[in-house]
Amino acid sequence: MTDIRLSVVLVLSVCWALCGADLPPSGLNELYNSRVVSADLVRRPKQGMPSWVPNTYFTSHSGVRVTLDNGKQYLIHKGPGYGKASDTVVTDARHMSNKWQVKKTENFGGSRTVGDMVKAGGSRYSILRGKHCHTAAKNMMRLGRRRRH
Fold first, then answer.
1. What is the pLDDT of residues 115-138, one digit of tens each?
2. What is the 3-state secondary structure (H, E, C) of 55-90?
3. Domain extents for the chain?
């Protein structure tokens, strides 16, 4: 039980660092426990890539934009050093650029929470171990196919 509480505190700390301007501390727990209605696998070119470079696996960044039961949208994505406690972070989708493209949509029907998605993304980034943005996004999207009730 202590591990679960520690995980919640770590994820909420990361979320506060990223969403702090948009979300008061009292709302962090609510966000973590919010139900995901649908999720979009999204991809954009890596920052710094010239526009002529194709948007492929190696030259892109992936994430998952979730729509919650209250209609709000958040981007959950992973990168090296993105957060302090976890490299999988949650940001308000309003901050997404127009370079993000929807690749796939899953209907979650409220069967998962934001916390479930962050956990599926994994806490540590490692390109050598395959723990990067693309696998994190894929793992999050799989949760929609393995519904729990």
1. 999 999 999 999 889 999 999 999
2. CCHHHEEEEEEEEECCCCEEEEEECCCCCCCCCEEE
3. 2-145
